[in-house]
Amino acid sequence: MDNQVKYLLPESDLPRQWYNIVPDLPAPPPPPLHPGTREPVGPDDLAPLFPAALIMQEVSQESYIPIPEPVRDVYRLWRPTPLFRARRLERDLGTPARIYYKYEGVSPAGSHKPNTAVPQAYYNAAEGVRKLTTETGAGQWGTSLAFAGALFGIDVEVWMVRSSYDQKPYRKMLMETYGATVHASPSPITQAGRAILDASPDSTGSLGIAISEAVEVAATNPDTRYALGSVLNHVLMHQTVIGEEAIKQLAQAGETPDVIVGCTGGGSNFGGLVFPFLREKLAGRMDPVIRAVEPAACPSFTRGTYAYDFGDTAGLTPLLKMHTLGHEFVPDPIHAGGLRYHGMSPLLSHIYELGMIEAVAKPQSECFAAGLRFARTEGIVPAPEPTHAVAACIEEALRCKETGEEKVILTALCGHGLLDLQAYGDYLAGQMQDLELSGDAIAEALRGLPAGV
Ligand SMILES: *Cc1c(COP(=O)(O)O)cnc(C)c1O
Questions:
Q1: Could you tell me the mean pLDDT of each successive run of 10 residues in the chain, 453 residues long?
Q2: Best substitution site from 158, 171, 242, 385 to test ligand 1's pocket, by max atoms within 8 Å of Cβ?
Q3: How confident is the model at residue 451, as a pLDDT?
Q4: CA angle, 224 as apex, 221 and 229 as ends, to 5°?
């Protein structure tokens, strides 16, 4: 047992409910506001975009929401996912720390995203929705929704950020294999896309722009709804299956975490991993340090501001109080496309403001160096996004080497990088740059924040 590297749960330990952290927080998160009236949005305002069941989850005050059996049935294809101890990485680092990673790359789409794509497709299908529109950055979310749509008989139309569309042709093919339709964003087929293309024909796109396009199409077609792969409360809640399983697996290993790190784009894999541990921490049963890791090119936690802002570039969504770089901010086309979002989950932003989590930003070259080291010791090639988490694990483990502390470090390896090999190729060819993000660029984008809220 002493050399155990893999902790598996029996199927009977597949979670039966999602955990909602909101009622456990010391203060409630600020509500989303209607962009016109600036009053808190009601369920009716959201009805053109989301099915009623998901709107109820978004505002729920229940601590636990039962996972429908048809959703658990699909989860069984890859869940419970394994927890690994990174013994070879530890040895390579010469650290006394013990590193554990929860591997979500075993899902059909190769990431954690199907954990929410499947219930979102299920609830939409149950309410008679025929088509879902969405955006995708690196392609992971589009792939996941395409997969889930295929299982529940829903058409899926995806706006894929132009820079990823060009860098990741296999992601597009995978979405099409699952039956989805894929457009490069900005596209000429929406008002929002045309406005961007008129102003900058060579736009590399952004998640904010792609969201505007997908929302516009959903809002103007009655049988169509919109699905978001991160940021919102219900999305983070669906992802809590990650943390719930990890708690049981760490207990199997006889461990309690000292440090939990995760990468944050909109915050869903991080929230899904850490919320159940925060519950335990709030109840006094453990006391881990919890650290979000974001890209230096898109640092919403560490260099953004906490303010009401739009979730998209065109300003079609409700106003969300969140850590943001401004909805007009277009990050450099770094390889971790899934982390190129101007904002951050409002719930995680609130939890950060409460001082319950910390955040750091990392440049992509440090992250790919970490990804390579991980691949060469643990065998799994991490997606560009979780290389940020791996880099933070390595940093912490090397600190432990200096101090001699035997800390237990936990992270989520939220996806594999087998469709992101161009990024590794660029890194290996010495062609990866860390562009400095100037304070002026951030200040400029923040000037576009909506006034009066
Ligand atoms: C989408 C994605 C992310 C970023 O989104 P979060 O909501 O912050 O998790 C990170 N990693 C992978 C593998 C992704 O697909």
A1: 90 98 97 94 92 97 98 98 98 98 98 98 98 95 98 98 90 97 97 96 92 95 96 98 98 98 97 98 98 96 97 91 94 85 96 98 97 98 98 98 98 97 95 90 93 84
A2: 385
A3: 87
A4: 130
Q: In angstroms, what is the span from residue 108 Cα to ligand 1's centroid?
A: 15
Report the C-alpha gap between 239 and 262 in whole angstroms.
13
From 81, 101, 111, 274, give the residue whose CB has the most ligand 1 atoms within 8 Å, as the site to mutate: 111
The C-alpha atoms of residue 91 and residue 12 are separated, in whole angstroms, by: 34
CA distance 293 to 260: 11
- Read off the amino acid at residue 179: G
- Nearest CA to 168 out of 419, 431, 432, 426 is that of 419
CB of 386 sitting under 6 A from ligand 1: yes
**Residues with Cβ within 8 Å of residue 180, at least 6 apart in sequence:** 142, 145, 146, 149, 155, 156, 157, 158
CA distance 124 to 225: 8
Atom of ligand 1 nearest to the CA of 268: 7
CATH code, residues 5-13+68-110+236-446? 3.40.50.1100
pTM (whole model) above 0.70: yes
The confidence score (pLDDT) of residue 132 equals 98
Task: Provide the pLDDT for residue 33.
Answer: 96
Give the span between the Cα atoms of 287 and 289, in whole angstroms: 7
Question: What is residue 202's predicted lDDT score, i.e. its pLDDT?
Answer: 94
CA-nearest residue, atom 13 of ligand 1:
415
Per-residue b or e along 158-176, where b marks 16 or more CB atoms closer than 10 Å to that residue's CB: bbbbbbbbebbeebbebbe
* Closest C-alpha residue for ligand 1 atom 14: 338
Cβ 416 under 6 angstroms from ligand 1: no
Distance, in Å, from the CA atom of 197 to the CA atom of 184, rounded to the nearest integer, reads 12
Strand ranges (E), 194-318: 224-226, 259-263, 289-295, 305-310
So what's the pLDDT on residue 59?
A: 95
- How many Cα atoms within 13 Å fall on the side-chain side of residue 168? 34
Q: How far is the C-alpha of 15 from the C-alpha of 276, rounded, in Å?
A: 12
pLDDT of residue 1: 53
